[in-house]
Amino acid sequence: MAGRIEDYALIGDMQTAALVCVDGTVDWLCLPRFDSPAVFAGLLGTEEHGFWRVGPAHREGTEPPRATRRRYRGDSLVLESEWDTGRGTVRVTDFMPPRDGAPQLVRIVEGVSGRVPMSSSLRMRFAYGQVTPWVHKVGDRTVAVAGPDSVWLDTDADTYGKDLTTYSEFTVGPGDRVAFTISWEASHKPQPSLPEPEVALANTLEFWNEWVDQCTYTGPYREAVVRSLITLKALTYAPTGGIVAAPTTSLPEDIGGVRNWDYRFTWLRDAAITLSSLLRTGYREEARAWREWLLRAVAGDPENLQIMYGIAGERELGENELHWLPGYENSSPVRIGNGAAHQLQLDVYGEVTEALHLGHMTGLARNDYASLLQLKLIRYLEKHWNEPDEGIWEVRGPRRHFVHSKVMAWVAVDRTVKLIESGEVDGPLERFRELRDEIHDDVCEKGYDRERNTFTQSYGSKELDASLLLIPQMGFLPPDDKRVIGTIEAIQRELSTEDGFVLRYPTSSSDASGEQNLDGLPGDEGAFLACSFWLADDLAMIGRVEEARRLFEKLLALRNDLGLLAEEWDPKRQRQVGNFPQAFSHVPLIDTALRLTAAGAFRA
């Protein structure tokens, strides 16, 4: 049985990632890429769908013991889990070396004290748990083969097969080290080279130490910021610069419900805000790589801009359901692909333009095609900004005139006006200034409820939307504007949980026709963590700095023991929900930490 979402640790090689449970079980791993079919899919099913457990031996039929403690080694993505048992203490070190050849997952068992009986149980199932491979020996190596995939197991420990699973049982004492490595290779190619686990460990630690040394943030929240930055780096697909929203699919927003989506793609919105956080903390190379990815993905067709692409820029992300997987805690369906890829979301133009603008402002080397792309995006918005769309939250109901979408359209035009004013590019300056004013006037006239002194989710609606918290952060209105303060206070009243966290929007509303789902989906969802960080930002901007700090530190307390956050927090179950770990949660954590540090909002 899969653990709670917060029971998992992330390890990865910046091309794919694995989730390791607190009991030493790898329940999720896609090979060779983030969006490849899973080799271990137990997270969304049962052990029959693939897993790899390494930990102290336990009686058959009993739950494997949870690690007594675990941590990342320093500022790295190398996981150390320790078990204190009746016979002694043992440590397992899990990591994926930054790739130079075949993708590898390495697990090193080390005796700390006493003599501890250990076991390894490896059940590989390809194609998201649907395909049982042929497992056999090739010399001293064990290989599992099915269709296009082969996975090779290397270890000095003795192994044996039973019930379509590869087992190893051994005992470690102080200083003993036993390594296990799995390596993926296309089945038609020669076998991958033999791994060198100890060398790989040293190189992996060196890589992460050197990367973290580039961080320019030195404030009081450095631990949380650095862990979030490492997580964002781990979600970057190194060969192309694309950034996945999360390494998982179908972890539910509503446990037992249908709000289960595949996040292993590059959302322009998520990637753009990730880029902004990396730039603000000193990471220009990632920003440059993402900009190059964007230019390749959009190519010469910005009029058909998608809201998301594959990690190499693929456009077709067709959505399908995996009927043989019961889903995390029976939350079905399990989906791969994402049907929202072709939605119209006008806010994306604003996020992309803002990212390009920030790159320019922070000294990223000029790229003429990036400036040309920005102008083409605005010319598209000239014709389409006043159309209804699906909005930032990808509603599966009818299109509406979402206020946040219009605000971000204004952002796109405003940043382009600034680009032209800087002399970096030629464009119709006066025409774009007039367009900027037209959008601004339209939003303030049609998206603002004067009786309640708040902006609303969409034109003519009464509902609120937490994305409105971005109005002052994007510079659409100043923080001291009464309409901004009124909106912040209305969201606090109407969209906050008892714990003070923020919902994205009301999922349902009662009217004369009865209960209706506003987003076109049944069920409910938890507090959206990004929105809660946005509230902390806004509170700091309007001078309620101490209140902002308290909310921020409550949000930090929701992280698991390794500093990781999913997409949402379920206030009823008091647990994390949604895909994990989620870039859209870690990015605003960084941004809020930077804002509060600048405001001096921390205890000495």
TrEMBL record:
The lineage of its organism: Bacteria, Bacillati, Actinomycetota, Actinomycetes, Kitasatosporales. GO terms for biological process: trehalose catabolic process. SUPFAM superfamilies: Six-hairpin glycosidases (SSF48208). Its cofactor is phosphate. Coiled coil: none annotated. Keywords: Carbohydrate metabolism, Glycosidase, Hydrolase. PANTHER family: GLUCAN 1,4-ALPHA-GLUCOSIDASE, TREHALASE. It is an enzyme of class 3 (hydrolase). Residues 2-141 form the Trehalase-like N-terminal domain. GO terms for molecular function: alpha,alpha-trehalase activity. It comes from the Bacteria. Belongs to the glycosyl hydrolase 15 family. This is Trehalase. Pathway: Glycan degradation; trehalose degradation; D-glucose from alpha,alpha-trehalose: step 1/1. InterPro entries: 6-hairpin_glycosidase_sf (IPR008928), 6hp_glycosidase-like_sf (IPR012341), GH15-like (IPR011613), Trehalase-like_N (IPR045582). Residues 219-593 form the GH15-like domain. It comes from Actinacidiphila rubida. Its EC number is 3.2.1.28. It catalyses: alpha,alpha-trehalose + H2O = alpha-D-glucose + beta-D-glucose.
